[in-house]
Design brief:
The structure holds two protein chains of two kinds. By secondary structure, chain A is mainly α. Helix content of chain A is 75%, strand content 2%. Chain A has one domain: Arp2/3 complex 21 kDa subunit ARPC3, CATH 1.10.1760. Chain A contains nine helices and two strands. In chain A, helix 3 crosses helix 5, helix 4 runs antiparallel to helix 5 and helix 5 packs antiparallel against helix 6. The radius of gyration of chain A is 18 Å and the shape is globular. By secondary structure, chain B is mainly alpha-helical. Chain B has two domains: 55 residues, no CATH class; 57 residues. The longest helix of chain B has 50 residues. The chains are: A mainly alpha, B mainly alpha. At the A-B interface, helix 2, strand 1, strand 2, helix 4 and helix 6 of A face helix 1, helix 2 and helix 3 of B.
Chain lengths: 228, 113
């Protein structure tokens, strides 16, 4: 999902910065508010950030014969909301842009938009939807994390097709979708499974924090306690 | 007791990773396999005749240095997750111990009465 340094023409870098920056700023405000209201959630914030660090460093093979990496943005989005996830994604993307020449400073705004905004927003909406339906949180986190991952790559494909509509937007979009999104399907499933593992462990050890963050209801908290 | 569920889920992830390696067994970078999707997108853009407007401030000088920094990135994340989960696990055990202590104390008190 990394758009490499200098790979966006004209005013596109500026445009994506203008879209992403307010969300990141709002995310910083949200982090301040959440950690003030629930100081006991700070370790989970660190875990969410660390999860993005680990997952986005793993370049895994896919059945298309090329490699890509998961994003890890679903966990943070479900636990703390999409704006907080965008801050964590911004930190990781900055690390990779400066130290690994993966992504770039000019394309940072665009990359934050895909991995830090669209992906987490979809993940969060899906989780909240499933929570409303009263379905299991494990299913919710699986679908949320898988969608957060996949939608990140769909966004990158869209961004590149918008910047390079050659010969037409549709042709270009199909091309970038094949490169990114198709490769990403098995990885998104993998990310969903990994996120379920880590989420269920948190649910087992500290269901109280998850309840305070409104991630699980009191009813589920009781059933988890009975199991543990 | 070791829980089976996380192990099964992690094994599934491993399987997802192994399948492509088996599918394209014997093929490598030289044949155009297992390259990065980011790189493939770069090539697709370059094919349109576009020239990058800016270049990275710094690039890892070799594949070795790049993997060093990727390993560092994963290590930073892994140590944080391990530290906090270990702490939570110890906390949960201690909480259980305290609860049991309280239970036996209550039981003794009812007997003595």
């Amino acid at each position: 999902m990394h758009i490499m340094e200098g790979m966006l023409p004209g005013l596109w870098p500026l445009f994506w910065y203008m879209v992403s920056l307010p969300v990141v700023v709002y995310g910083v405000i949200r982090i301040k508010k959440i950690t003030e209201e629930h100081p006991e959630s700070k370790p989970l914030l660190a875990v969410s950030g660390a999860f993005v660090f680990v997952l986005s460093s793993l370049k895994m093979p896919s059945f298309t014969g090329s490699c890509s990496h998961p994003t890890g943005n679903g966990l943070a989005a479900v636990l703390f909301g999409p704006a907080v996830a965008s801050v964590l994604a911004a930190i990781v993307l900055l690390f990779q842009a400066l130290l690994l020449a993966h992504g770039g400073i000019s394309t940072l705004g665009a990359n934050i938009f895909s991995m830090g905004i669209v992906g987490p927003l979809c993940a969060w909406l899906i989780y909240k939807g499933i929570q409303q339906m009263g379905w299991s949180p494990s299913l919710g986190i699986f679908l949320a994390a898988a969608a957060g991952d996949l939608l990140t790559y769909v966004t990158t494909a869209t961004q590149l097709a918008l910047a390079f509509p050659l010969p037409t937007f549709t042709a270009s979009f199909t091309n970038f979708m094949t490169i990114f999104a198709v490769t990403q399907i098995p990885l998104a499933i993998g990310e969903g499974l990994l996120t379920v593992v880590i989420f269920e462990y948190i649910m087992k050890l500290r269901p109280d924090i998850l309840e305070k963050l409104n991630v699980i209801g009191p009813k589920i908290k009781e059933s988890v306690k009975a199991v543990a | 007791m070791v829980e089976k569920r996380p192990i099964i889920l992690l094994a599934l992830v491993a399987l997802l990773t192994i399948i492509p390696l088996v599918m394209y067994s014997g093929l490598g970078e030289d044949e155009g396999y297992f390259g990065g999707a980011d790189g493939a997108a770069d090539e697709a853009i370059s094919a349109t005749g576009y020239q990058p407007t800016t270049t990275p401030l710094w690039e890892p000088p070799s594949g070795e240095i790049e993997s060093l920094l990727f390993a560092l990135q994963a290590a930073i994340g892994a140590i944080i997750i391990g530290y906090i989960f270990g702490y939570y696990n110890g906390q949960a055990k201690e909480r259980k111990r305290q609860e049991e202590k309280l239970k036996t104390k209550d039981a003794k008190e009812t007997v003595s009465k």
